[in-house]
Amino acid sequence: MPVYMLDKDTISFPHPTLARRDGLLAVGGDLSVERLLLAYTHGIFPWFEPGEEILWWCPKERFVIFPEEIHISRSMKKYTRSHELKVVLNRDFADTMHRCRIKREFAEGTWISDEMEEAYLRLHKEGYALSLEVFEDGNLAGGLYGVSIGRCFFGESMFSERKNGSKAALIALANTLLENRFLFIDCQFHTEHLESMGGRFISWEAYEQMLCRGTEE
Prior knowledge:
Helix content: 25-40%
Radius of gyration: 17 Å
Low-confidence stretches: none
Number of strands: 11
Strand content: 25-35%
Structural class: alpha+beta
Strand order of the largest sheet: 6-7-8-9-10-5-11
Mean pLDDT: 93
Largest sheet: 7 strands, mixed
Order of helices and strands: EEHEEEHEHHEEEHEHEH
Number of helices: 7
């Protein structure tokens, strides 16, 4: 499959099923609110190294967490009983995203560049991106951010300031989404950590059906 080159002046994408086997669909374009919304509502997302051209991905198999299937281990159940946990939505979106960036830069490198931070802050201001933070006994323990469209949530990144912080944030997110009848959390790529929390692969066909239902309501 070829990789499609996008024009900055035309907000469009090739059909998602035209992505290569590794999931890469297109290169170029921009990170405008309009293009990002078009991408996410078609199962496409940007992921690229700082300084590179923008790369747009659409894996054929999707790794998702269904909110009702979030896995809470015995150790996490013990943790939640041992601490006073407070969940806050949109405490400070820019700060949460930057903490995700700093933690990843220190550990393994990150795709969260200045350009990405600015783009997702614009999405947040338009009401299409949110952050969630968990406080443990009054101290910030962890958080995450992602894109929220209709009843679909597209996870971007997490951070921990204390042990179990990101796990607590993901569990809190799943519970919040379940209460609001969200259909799924799109994890984008597989990790063992997310699999341990209940993530699993589904087919593109199943994902596309849920995506259409969730974004059109």
